[in-house]
Amino acid sequence: MPDLTPDEFRSLGHLFVDAVADARAGIERHPVRDAVAPGTVRARFAREAGEDPEPLAAFPSLVEAVTGDADTRWQHPGFHAFFPANASLTSLLGELLSGGAGAQGMLWSTSPACTEVEQAVTDQLARALGLDETFTHDGGGGGSIQDSASSAALVALTAALHRAAPDPATGWRARGVTGAERVYVTAETHSSLAKAVRVAGLGAGGLRSVACSPGTRAMDPAALAAMLADDVAAGLVPVLVCATVGTTSTGASDPVAEVVAAAAPHGAWVHVDAAWAGVAALCPEHRWVLGGVNPAPDAGGVDSFCTDAHKWLLTAFDASLLWVRDATALPAALSITPPYLRDAHSDSGAVVDFRDWQVPLGRRFRALKLWAVLHGQGLSGLRAHLRGHVALAAELAERVRAHDGLELACDPVLSLVCLRASAGDAATTALLERANGDGRVLLTGTEVAGHPVVRVAFGGVATGPEHLEILWDVLSA
Amino acid sequence: MPDLTPDEFRSLGHLFVDAVADARAGIERHPVRDAVAPGTVRARFAREAGEDPEPLAAFPSLVEAVTGDADTRWQHPGFHAFFPANASLTSLLGELLSGGAGAQGMLWSTSPACTEVEQAVTDQLARALGLDETFTHDGGGGGSIQDSASSAALVALTAALHRAAPDPATGWRARGVTGAERVYVTAETHSSLAKAVRVAGLGAGGLRSVACSPGTRAMDPAALAAMLADDVAAGLVPVLVCATVGTTSTGASDPVAEVVAAAAPHGAWVHVDAAWAGVAALCPEHRWVLGGVNPAPDAGGVDSFCTDAHKWLLTAFDASLLWVRDATALPAALSITPPYLRDAHSDSGAVVDFRDWQVPLGRRFRALKLWAVLHGQGLSGLRAHLRGHVALAAELAERVRAHDGLELACDPVLSLVCLRASAGDAATTALLERANGDGRVLLTGTEVAGHPVVRVAFGGVATGPEHLEILWDVLSA
């Protein structure tokens, strides 16, 4: 057959593993980001694919020749841009087994292992994070691994639209959106919510921007309550409120408990986007990130909670964790079953078919890489990883405070530091350009109150104290 | 840091590669699908994740202990169910490098390599398939790798909704859907289209089922034309027509050229879902699958074309290929740019940011596994792979025709054979159950004209002539 034999894979696989190990070991010999002109990589490809097989042993060096001087290195320990995506070598081992299994877990029956390992590890993680038992599969809700927080937001919105329809059995599914549905965010909410609102057919007009409390970048619950009341009075239908824990720009957090209290009278779905910050709840001292997420006596909790294992929890992209407190909510909105997907186990209701928790039908065995991380690092290792980066951020913030030419744009949050040049906007912009020109670090900018800010997000899998020294060398020069 | 060192990864990686090789080499010692009760795998997990790191060297045997007697083996050569997802060992080598790089290609600038390799290989593949140059990035359109044909359908619909809005700059994006939008499929179209219509907010009422031509399972273009005219007269807006090449149930194909001709007067987007069959266009003798896809003189072509590399093109899930003929169509519908995603290269317009071609923001370097397949097998190897399975289907069909107790439910298409018991529906259902009870093969059923049918889909990466003999032994017993 036109594939490798297992023995050919064995010897080539060793070569490729070595190539990965060598690349990671030598990554600091390269700049974080190469200066490359658009089209450079494409121009190295032939117009037509080759007719004949070429030796795979040469593939790693071919890839290096084509891309090695023309890329942005997300696994470089000087990568402090966006939020790092820490593809730990531990998680790659799990990914390898996942590829070997080649399972496709659209239905329980198409891979009981893929489905149930995902249920088990998301239940374990929910408990380790301190999520209420109602977020577990054991407790009537459950977690799933999505490709990204963007997709998690879209399916949460889909479930919310279904729940908000006057007759959920026929309303939204049969009729579609009416134009009256509204989704509530702030100017600091991640753009994926606006994208989800657009994809879901609501249009930009379906997105309502709630004011932040004065002097903060956090949703003002009184403003939310007022906007909800006004909208309902105007005949509009509040469908979903997104509360962010740890915004992308500055790490700000909306007051989740107050958001829940404001949303509850209107039956709006509350989705918590804690894509970056949520995993910090593994550490007791950072468990404040869950404030208001769990149901309190005499108050509802949130309906869905999302945090990314692929940002800061040592798990290679993609592995966005979405928990819901009602295991029927996503299938109610998303399930469609043609004859070729009919299945006795599905019909029994005794199993979860994760195809009904997402837009795609097919799905990889992503839980294996997460399980490998839990197994190989243990919760203690994960906490050490998170704490290491939080300590770097605290140390950087302290140095910035003590530096004449730099200042904090806001207090650091967990592993995120936002800073600027004391000399003003032009100096801040110049600082960002100079830092990125150095080659040893990569940072991204954002805006706070219309002014440029430099973000430093610690989170790389190999980022340690020595990389803070390099960064400080660059920033304080 | 709490991860493996490169050297630890090196030695563990060799172990894990060996585990994958051993599992593939020994897969036929297992049944394709274990008889397993729901909850079996979950019950083997502790309630809480462990505090301490455990040796990763023991992880492969742990995974085997937990899942080894409780799974469905998609890479078993007797897997002829659904459409096989052929996770070639060749593609896993590419996936390994992709994990090692850990790139996140949301923007061109966040990974020029991820972006441009994807452009280059989808351009090469477009040419190898015989797609018109307007489907390439070089030619003003372009390909992208989506996670699944379901997601490809959703983004195509999103682009179509945007294009159909009276003022595309503000219409759909600002206002959302109106309820007048209609999408056209047949009863044989994959359920992912119905799901996309629902997610996009159109509701089930937005989906119109066009009749098939008498005696076929292919869309009747006259019926489509009449339905479009009626709908337009009624004030409805035809947004998208989906033509399927190779339906999931039986491999039927809609007449694409006639569908295009009917849709053109109304400006409806034509999406071709060739998720399974499209890759067969690599072989000249199967290039009929592209009939009507390319633009003809005095006629438009289709707007988007989707085929899955992860079904039958030796590439591990997920790798669904979506080509569009207008590179601006998807970004026009999907692009949203907050300050933290602003980028000089993006603003220049000289690059493609693939985040704007999909729902998720982040994306893996999936093109590496596809490139590894093209490199390691060459087009000649891919053709041999496809032809091998088509030959198996032809041989099976011949045996069924000659057998007293079996008959074809329809003519075989490429590598798909639909058969039934001559004794009637009950015997067909019993045949499927008996075959799957044997353990050496796995088949799925569907319905044709309300009657049960047994599907045999050849496509496994290791499925060869000897597996036809096993299958025949089971079916003809």
TrEMBL record, chains A, B:
Pfam families, per the entry: Pyridoxal_deC
Alphabetic keyword roster: Decarboxylase, Lyase, Pyridoxal phosphate
Domain of life of the organism encoding this protein: Bacteria
InterPro entries per the UniProt record, alphabetical: Aromatic_deC (IPR010977), PyrdxlP-dep_de-COase (IPR002129), PyrdxlP-dep_Trfase (IPR015424), PyrdxlP-dep_Trfase_major (IPR015421), PyrdxlP-dep_Trfase_small (IPR015422), Pyridoxal-P_BS (IPR021115)
Cofactor: pyridoxal 5'-phosphate
Family affiliation: Belongs to the group II decarboxylase family.
Name of the protein this chain belongs to: Pyridoxal-dependent decarboxylase
Native organism taxonomy: Bacteria, Bacillati, Actinomycetota, Actinomycetes, Pseudonocardiales
